[in-house]
Amino acid sequence: MPDLRTGKIKYLNELLTAKEISCVELTQKYIDAIKKENTVLNAYVNVTEADALSTAKAVDEKIQRGEELSLLEGIPMTLKDNISTKDVETTCCSKILKGYVPVYDATVWEILKKQNAVLLGKTNMDEFAMGSSSETSCFGGSLNPHNIAHVAGGSSGGTASAVSGSMAVYGLGSDTGGSVRQPASFCGLVGLKPTYGTVSRYGLIAYASSFDQIGPIAGSVEDAAIIYDAVSKYDKKDSTSTGSRVKTADTLNDSIKGMKIGIAEEYFDGVREDIRASIKKALKVYEALGAEIMEIKLPSLKYALPVYYILACAEASSNLGRYDGIRYGCKTDSYKDVNDMISRTRSEGFGKEVQRRILLGTYVLSAGYYDAYYNKAQRLRETIVKAFQDAFLECDVMITPTVPATAFETNYTLQDPVETYLTDICTVPVNIAGLPALSIPCGFDGKGLPIGMQIIGKSFDDARILNAAYQYEQCVKDEIYKKSDMGVTI
What we know:
This protein has 16 helices and 13 strands. It is α/β, with parallel strands linked by helices. The strands form 2 sheets. It has an 11-stranded mixed beta sheet with strand order 1-3-2-6-8-7-12-13-11-9-10, sandwiched between helices. The chain has a two-stranded antiparallel ribbon with strand order 4-5. Strand 4 and strand 5 form a beta hairpin. Helix 9 crosses helix 11 and helix 9 packs across helix 12. The longest helix is centred in the last third of the chain and has 22 residues.
């Protein structure tokens, strides 16, 4: 029997189909786990128990009629609180959206809802996805199940905490600069940031529209591939939507003999030695599988962080302009006139980190600074995109650390936010270029905290990076996934 901390969607599907457990019983076990663990981990901000049990009952009735289940049907899961859910409060973990109940579903949830996915609730996150620890949430931060003195990561930290803490089989998060991969790395999970456009952003409350991408956080590569295949559909409601070109779960057993893996030393600047050692150990596994390791150069990587923060904050400044207290969300109680009402509402509703990024974005878009910052950053973005294109003429995939460090201690990121931005160095280049990337566990540090390895591919090479990760996982899964008796057991 597999350890359910690593998900195993097919395993649970087989249990349900064989009637070894009912969907209501399975769902109740996860609800009970949430009631037990969430008071400590703070992964969920809204538990949809009644809706979950109602869906589970419908799945059981379908099983009794002898109808076939899709792989995700009846599987308990969760959504980050910036993914719109009709009739279920969606706050982005911000005071300014308290009480906001969407009148429509995000496309990804609409797809899963039609498959009778069991939504357990909405998970915690950094406010408007701005942060690296989930501690900018108005609900307080999520904690790491591996060590509750450490954060779960961000901004999709609640989703990672829920899956790692056996309070969901899988979850969907959003990745603007690493917000799926970083918490997956911190919590010992698989986190996939798909190629930009393959998964619809319709219904994802925007932070930075040209960077945002919805992706799965799961306990195994196979689970991530199954989820990705389900949600990577073309959506006419999203003008940037393309959908996926292949069914990735069908390619997971392809040989990687002869695959060229690029290693850019620029990705290892400032990376802790134990993380370097874990990546080197993983590369030996790939060599044993027949892959070729080669050095490549990415000198333009040094521009990635300033480019990302200038452009992402500029887009955030524009996207968050709609929160004015007039149309929806909270409104200040005391004001003199309309301008004063908008100013007070935004000052009271947005947290410090969101205000900081709005101000930075407004500054770089203002007259006199637009050319000096925003236009220059856009040109440098093109340079970084071209650098990746050239690098992939030499190699098939790249391997890097996911994060230069393991999970921070609680309150660390709040002391020096700017220093925290530096920890995004390995993840933001992928979002700048719109590439697919995946984080997979590759070891543990001296405190027992997970270390993540990132695999980056060419645009629309999502299947290749998932296969590369799967081949590695099959060789070392007993080492990279720690056994635990915490949470759900069947």
